[in-house]
């Protein structure tokens, strides 16, 4: 790998963009899915093969490499002060038929950044560590952030031990087959971790639309998710006059239309999505007796989320009365917004300005491992653009030059945090 | 059966209501579905058993009984004029898990009416015939009105010969196994049929809501059915700002809401139903890229159907532009309204008035065999109430007294048509 890294004094690698792409493709070879893209589910063969390959690469680069109990893989460049670690990295798992960028780009970026810093500046003041987090997506088992939650000590064994995957394989069995075990919950989490910086693809289209290469994340949105169930009365489409109907689809479409209009009136950064609609009996010539739909609501300010919840609840009540249907609202997800550490955000922004990078300070509308670290240690995040915002899809794509800009921004950030 | 029919001079049977119910239940025993209600699909064992049972009953009552080529079962009370037949009856097939009333009530009503008239008035001027039509629902094979279309000569062999049922059984094989064969298409249809009168449950809630026992149908609605496909762009629910979205579900709910509001503005008897909505990918945290929904549109006046079609098409275009999505509209059903014969409608109405029956002149929002006969011979229809409008369901129910009122109205009508 010696020829991979060539420093030209101004944070320039020779062919950096191409090298990142090659590494992403190389990691992809361990998890190619015949159905398209890559599938690397927690503790699967693809997952194990990829972690082992990463381990070899990191060892070749001279990092001190180790797995923790649950399968998070770390590569450390020791600093003068062994007790303080600046951590970077992202998750290695993917969704089913995912792309080459979500998750693994943050790991490749971290490794390349540390290699560069080592070559350029030698030993840092603080340890520099890159982590390939075991799991974030919740795609094999219905549990997210298994990797990061184990590092900060917030993973709970009893929350996962009864989970099974879609083939009926229990969580613990999958884990032990991959060679890992539950972390002893009484054991204190690592005390050396002082900072976490994650690099990730945006999974949205803001950077691309605004023609920026790097996003400096100042906050991760809070989310609420609801299921709204509208119960009317199924009836014959021909023989039931409009005024005798209790049409659940009519009522639901009215609600959805008004709720999303309201969301647009609230303005950015509020986003509201009705992603799922299920009508019953869902037959062309039957007036629907039931409509169930979801609402996904996100904002960086909890107060706005609460206020919007009250407003749309009122709307649903009014519209239910108008259509003579019943409606219930079930809230099944409620996470608070997570601000990134303002000092690190400032450091990153200053660095981007200094280096004349094309950047935008923004929020993250998606959840990331950074939100698990943030309540415990100062945390920050960098984005690179996602072409058309496509994500969780084999067509996921980021321009190689933008991938390179992201790594450069990370290098500068880690230098500020670990060498100064 | 002698004791079944007792005339008391004013079209009164002793225990008529109970006797109708017992006959419906008896027919139901040949097609009981362990999953609920009755299932009597064309040419199935249940179908054959029921037709045979009906044949025995009609023979016992002294009617001249015969099957035609395709399995329509007729019972004839010969009149003085052998060349003219007044036909009544309905279909014997049911949907899967149907109820005891849809179809078979019209056959039971016809048999009991003819028995009564024979006992009361002897030989009619014209033949009186009750038919148990082979098929109307299209529940086994995707083809409706197989029974009545064969009688009027509009059934086309090539339209059904390639059809298979859900078990892969071809139409012709099912038919020959039941002992029937295609009708020779070149053969002219029966020339003796002069009038058809069908009695059926309303399958709607108008009669019940207006507290009437009998509906006198003056027209069967015309129908159009459309599939509207809205194509936007699937995106991440968190990372795609509202203004960057092409949300197919938002656009579709806007369209549905406006279209159905428009339908209400048009007023009765227009009915518009969005019975089916399918969202893609239909995941809570993904902005939907596609929404497909149906529109079922009915009215007794073709001009109104055409006008509404133009109006909603314009709305869909406008809303598509507003949401920056594409929309296509496919029309896949288009049947004209079918008026019933005004003279027979008048005869029925006069009879109902005379006999002080609780009736309402109305249209049929559902399709019936009567619409197949109407273009060929003067045709009329009578309805009895459906409790809560429930139909195609084991819970289908009509008050026994209303069942009796329907038979009385039919008796009076057949008397006017066959004896005068």
Description:
- Chains A, B: Keywords: Hydrolase, Metal-binding, Zinc.
- Chains A, B: GO terms for molecular function: hydrolase activity, acting on carbon-nitrogen (but not peptide) bonds, in linear amidines; metal ion binding.
- Chains A, B: Pfam families: M20_dimer, Peptidase_M20.
- Chains A, B: InterPro entries: Amidase_Cbmase (IPR010158), Bact_exopeptidase_dim_dom (IPR036264), Peptidase_M20 (IPR002933), Peptidase_M20_dimer (IPR011650).
- Two copies of one chain form a homodimer.
- Chain A has about 425 residues and is α+β, with helices and mostly antiparallel strands.
- In chain A, about 35% of the residues lie in helices and about 25% in strands.
- Chain A is built from twelve helices and 16 strands.
- In chain A, helix 1 packs across helix 3, helix 1 packs across helix 12 and helix 8 packs antiparallel against helix 9.
- The radius of gyration of chain A is 24 Å and the shape is globular.
- In chain A, about 55% of the residues are buried.
- The N terminus of chain A is likely disordered.
- The interface between A and B is large, with 63 and 63 residues.
